[in-house]
Amino acid sequence: MLKLEELKTQLLSLQAEIGRIKSEGRVLTDCWIAKAKPGGSKKKKYPRLKSRKPMFDGKKTEYLSIHSSAVAEAEAALARGKAVKKLDKRIQGLSERVNRLQDKFSKSSKTPTRKKAPQLYTPPEIIDLVRVVMGEIDLDPASDDIAQQWVQARNYYTLALDGLFHPWFGRVWLHPPADGKTAKWTSKLLNEYSSGRVTEAVLLVRPSAGSKWFQKLTRLFPVCFPDERLKFLDDQEIPQTQPKNGNAIFYLGQNRQQFGQVFGTIGSVSSPV
User: Fold this and answer.
1) Using one digit for the tens of pLDDT, what is the confidence trace for 75-112?
2) For residue range 209-233, what is the model confidence (pLDDT) as tens digits?
3) pLDDT recorded at residue 101
């Protein structure tokens, strides 16, 4: 297991480097600066920061004043974005190697295990809403290859790898497995968020009003209670016909208004006082 531990150490180091870069200021990926063109209206003479996807208050364009440091700041943010994107690519490669080694180790182990509850998958339409709020998903820490067909996170940990024991980072989507450890998964999320390693997150859980972890989340973060119970998918991607429980979807981050507007389309959203 020495090689596996070495890879984990490398992952931590790369994530620390991403954290350092993000602490320097704004980070922009998949954007560019369109230079001002002669002629046209006065507004269109300004250089523009552009993106292929809505990023700037839901728009694809942000005008930059030539009478301030806006252009220089945008250029620095783009440079940081390129650096983070390269690190993300390295992290993805390392994560895949870690997953393969962990899976190999799990298969070779002869220790008997208890029968696990069937894995249930979040419907794609919910993931679509998550992307509207956060833009991208940097990490899905409790996942597998089936879920990634529509989650499409930049990085993910399989359940065999156990994301509770690995670093979390960036924008996180979390649907804890049905293993009775929801309190541990939410505690891990809160710790990674408070540390700054996780910058934004959407969490889907079963409401548990009498649990301390659920009470803590409702005191701190906005939550959506969907009007209709979500029809989770089985491992054949077939929706459940009779969901038994309701759902709670929490948001951790600075974009609370956007979360309320987006998830308000499927249920009631409440925020802590």
Assistant:
1) 999 999 899 888 888 888 887 887 777 677 666 554 44
2) 889 999 999 999 999 999 988 887 7
3) 75
**What is the sign, positive or negative, of the torsion defined by CA atoms of 258, 263, 265, 271?**
negative
DSSP string, the chain: -HHHHHHHHHHHHHHHHHHHHHHTS----SEEEEPP-SSS-SGGGS-EEEESS--BTTBSEEE--TTSSHHHHHHHHHHHHHHHHHHHHHHHHHHHHHHHHHHHHHHH-----PPPPPP-B--HHHHHHHHHHHSS--EEEEE-TTTHHHH--SEEEETTT-GGGS---EEEEE---SSS-HHHHHHHHHHHHHHTSEEEEEEEE---TT-HHHHHHHHHS-EEEESS----B-TTSPBPSS--S--EEEEESS-HHHHHHHHTTTEEEE---
- What are the structure tokens assigned to 11, written together? 């992952």
Band of the pLDDT at 187, cuts 50, 70, 90? Answer: very high
CB atoms within 10 A of CB 138: 25
Give me the sheet containing 31-34, strands edge to edge: 31-34, 48-51, 61-63
Question: Is the pLDDT higher at 6 or at 143?
Answer: 143
Radius of gyration, alpha carbons of the chain = 21
Distance, in Å, from the CA atom of 220 to the CA atom of 149, rounded to the nearest integer, reads 32
